[in-house]
Amino acid sequence: MGRETAIGLIGLCLLGATAVHSAAASSETVVLSLPTATEMALARDVLVREAQQSLEDARAALVRERATTPRLSVDSSSSAASSAGLDPESAVSGTDYSSQSYSSVISVPLRGGTHVSLSTAASTSTTNSQLRAGGGMEYTYAAAAAGLGFSRPLPLLRDERVLTEGGRWSAEISVKRAELALEEVRRRVVGDTLALFFAALQAQRQAELAQAALRETEELLRIAQEKFQRGKVAEVEVMETQVSASSVSVSLRRAGSAAATTLDGLKNLLGVPLEQPVEISYEEAFALSPMSLDEAVLTERALYRRPDLQQLALGVQQAELSARQAEAQARPGIFLTANYSRSGQAATISESFHQLINPSWFVGLSATTNVTRAEDRAAIQQARGQLRLTQLEEQLRRDEVRLEIRRLMREVRDAGANALQLGETVRMAEENLRIRQTQFDHGLVRPIDVMETERRLSETRNQHLNALIDYQLARARLNLAVGEMPVVAQPEPESHGADGGGERDEGA
After folding, report:
1. What are the start-end ranges of the E strands in 357-505?
2. What is the distance between the alpha carbons of residues 159 and 327, in angstroms, rounded to a whole number?
3. Average pLDDT for consecutive 10-residue bins of the chain (508 residues)?
4. Separation of alpha carbons 310 and 304, rounded Å
5. Which CATH entry fits the domain spanning 32-66+166-322+376-482: 3.30.70.1230, 1.20.1600.10, 3.30.200.20, 1.10.10.60?
6. Domain boundaries along the sequence of the chain
7. Distance separating alpha carbons of residues 276 and 28, to the nearest angstrom
């Protein structure tokens, strides 16, 4: 019993040590930078994983379209027949006939719509006759034939390549669109992360400024109380200072609550436990780095690099391909056909195949056409309508991008100008506070005057902080609008045999 108790106590001690270690580990503050936050958001977002899976599916479809292994088509048949005849006027009392036939066709489709086929046929027949006067006769013969066929479409009345290679071209476009869709989803996730990160940074910094203001107010209150005890200030001035200190304390609690709320939202986006202490780190937010704001250059770069515009351009290509396919399917097709065969006869089928001595061949043209003309016209009209709609959507989106670039450039300029002006205002407010404190030390002003100056300095610092955050956020959004990832590196393309890096054929 004593041994079991000791073992239990050891287990409880180990469990308690583990719990203490876990609590200590979870209580460590995690310093979160903007690149780390974006990487965490990209790794956790469901839409990013769905886009990655769609890209893998598109690559697999392209592999199937590019497969060089021919898909064989085999057709075989066999038949047998027998019959018996009786003629009472003839010297032949009866005749039995039996026959068997076999045929097979192997068709091999090649690239470009060409088909090569190999055909074989064989038959055997047996006749057995019995005479009334006695005796009889039985004979058997067999025949065999083998041929090689060829068929190739001729682009005389329609575009044959768009029919034969259109599936592969469409698969290549789908892979590129899936890659751009993944990039676009990543851009949206980065944009959401930027907004939440800077909001949390702004709230955290405002809480720090409120904490600093509270410390300054408490120090001023302590000095005022000491002067009151010495009879240098009136009691009402100390009470006014206490009221101001209480107001600053309330502002601090509000700022802390706002910071905790925004930080919880960022944690939820990144998948960080809510109880995990997190500190936002982004020193660049408090510096004004220059940025070139040439509207023509940025607009041209955005129109060239934006993944959503590239997706729409590929959508136009795919709609054009569908229209070309519909037009080609509605037109007659001309095919060059050829065939070469040999046949032979012998007592058995195997001997007939060994004696294929009778050659024959032909070369000619064949044509196919559709009789459902109304259905073809409807398909062409639908494809052309979809093409016009896609082109209009692309043009509207390009116009929206131009307006977006202009708006974001204006926001960057305004935020930068505000930050510069408020930076000068902060320095003047700090100098004004220094003068007020000196005057207060010499008994020239009341404590409430110093408190009012501190309040104005705190408000100016908050405004300066908001302008700096607005500038950094506007810059990041402008980079995103131009088509750049402002805080994360672009993912390197994986080496897959599906996309291969090769260019699509000119006919696409």
Report:
1. 358-368
2. 9
3. 43 43 57 87 90 92 75 69 57 66 84 84 77 59 87 86 87 93 91 89 86 82 79 76 82 87 89 87 67 83 90 93 90 89 83 82 86 85 93 94 92 89 90 86 80 84 87 88 70 42 46
4. 8
5. 1.20.1600.10
6. 32-66+166-322+376-482, 73-154+333-368
7. 8
